[in-house]
């Protein structure tokens, strides 16, 4: 296509925008790397939303700028946007076509443990980068035993507000309203939410449903030289006593309830999309068709 794209109406697939508002330490880098590897072949753009100090809440004026960019920046369509940003409801800004939201979440304690050690030791993705807590040798178990702030139950409160959004109540730790809103958004505003523990299945479903972006993603994930996996170094698994202590917290109970809710929804979607044969999963072919079409054409 020659000439300025802004003068040309984009067809449905070419006008598509996906937002992956990634939760930290949920295998988000592993998944995003696949999008980067496929973008040239599948002809779409990938853009990282880099907020100052990774603040997941945007100012009101930045929300307006962000919505305007995503909806009117035709040169970047089709587009895959990713970043540590909480859910933003585009309908509030009067846009006619909303982006497609996707996400991945993780067992809340496993996510916190991974983040705790990531801040101290980094990972194998950028091993030379100095992390914020580098030099702190205290284990996660020791931190919990001493009642440290970096492993406090309040630090579990992250996946709920990321799905809840930009309302103040979303970020009030332990808010039942925030959890209910997060569940509502997950069901009504997200195209698909996967779980870290079943990332390959998440990728497989995306490839089947949105091949314009994800054609070839499953094979790439399975055979990639790095397997696209980013591993936190020096991570020590917590003891049963440490886990039990965290599980006494009402905050853990709410975050875990949300995680279980997301997992159940994902497994329901998967059960209606794939079948297992000889230990392998395969995507179901189209299972609906049209009939009794009237009036009859000549």
Give a quick rundown of the structure.
The protein is an alpha/beta fold.
- The string of secondary-structure elements, in order, is EHEHEEHHHHEHHHHHEE
CATH class division = Alpha Beta
What is the structural class?
A: alpha/beta
Our count of helices gives: 11
What number is the mean pLDDT? Answer: 89
> Could you list the spans in which at least 5 consecutive residues all have pLDDT below 50?
1-8, 124-131
Sheet with the most strands: spatial strand order = 2-3-1-4-5
The description of the largest β-sheet is: 5 strands, parallel
Look up the CATH topology: Rossmann fold
Task: Outline the structure in words.
There is one protein chain. The protein is of the alpha/beta class. It has one domain: P-loop containing nucleotide triphosphate hydrolases (Rossmann fold, 3-Layer(aba) Sandwich). 40% of the residues lie in helices and 11% in strands. The chain has eleven helices and seven strands. It has a five-stranded parallel beta sheet, with helices on both faces. A two-stranded antiparallel sheet has the order 6-7. Helix 7 runs antiparallel to helix 9. The chain is globular.
What's the topology here?
Elements: E1 17-20, H1 28-42, E2 45-48, H2 60-72, E3 79-82, E4 100-105, H3 108-121, H4 140-146, H5 159-164, H6 176-188, E5 190-195, H7 199-209, H8 211-214, H9 217-223, H10 240-247, H11 250-271, E6 274-277, E7 280-283
Parallel strand pairs: 1-3, 1-4, 2-3, 4-5
Antiparallel strand pairs: 6-7
Helix pairs in contact: 6-11, 7-9
């Amino acid at each position: 296509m020659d000439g300025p794209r802004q003068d040309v109406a984009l067809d449905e697939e070419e006008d598509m925008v996906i937002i992956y508002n990634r939760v930290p330490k949920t295998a988000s880098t592993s998944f995003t790397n696949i999008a980067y590897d496929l973008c040239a072949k599948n002809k779409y753009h990938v853009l990282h939303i880099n907020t100052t100090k990774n603040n997941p809440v945007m100012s009101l004026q930045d929300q307006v700028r962000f919505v305007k960019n995503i909806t009117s920046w035709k040169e970047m369509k089709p587009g895959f946007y990713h970043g540590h940003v909480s859910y933003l409801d585009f309908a509030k800004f009067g846009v006619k076509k909303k982006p497609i939201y996707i996400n991945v979440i993780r067992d809340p304690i496993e996510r916190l443990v991974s983040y705790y050690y990531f801040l101290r030791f980094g990972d194998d993705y950028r091993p030379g980068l100095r992390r914020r807590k580098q030099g702190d040798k205290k284990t996660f178990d020791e931190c919990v035993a001493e009642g440290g702030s970096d492993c406090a139950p309040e630090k579990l409160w992250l996946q709920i507000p990321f799905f809840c959004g930009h309302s103040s109540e979303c970020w009030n730790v332990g808010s039942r309203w925030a959890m209910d809103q997060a569940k509502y958004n997950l069901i009504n505003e997200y195209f698909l939410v996967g779980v870290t523990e079943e990332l390959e299945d998440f990728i497989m479903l995306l490839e089947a449903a949105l091949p314009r972006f994800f054609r070839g993603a499953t094979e790439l994930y399975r055979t990639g030289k790095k397997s696209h996996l980013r591993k936190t170094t020096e991570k020590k698994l917590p003891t049963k006593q440490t886990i039990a202590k965290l599980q006494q917290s009402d905050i853990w109970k709410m975050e875990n309830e949300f995680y279980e809710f997301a997992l159940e929804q994902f497994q329901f979607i998967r059960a209606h999309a794939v079948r297992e044969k000889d230990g392998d999963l395969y995507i179901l072919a189209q299972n609906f068709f049209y009939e009794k079409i009237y009036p009859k054409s000549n």
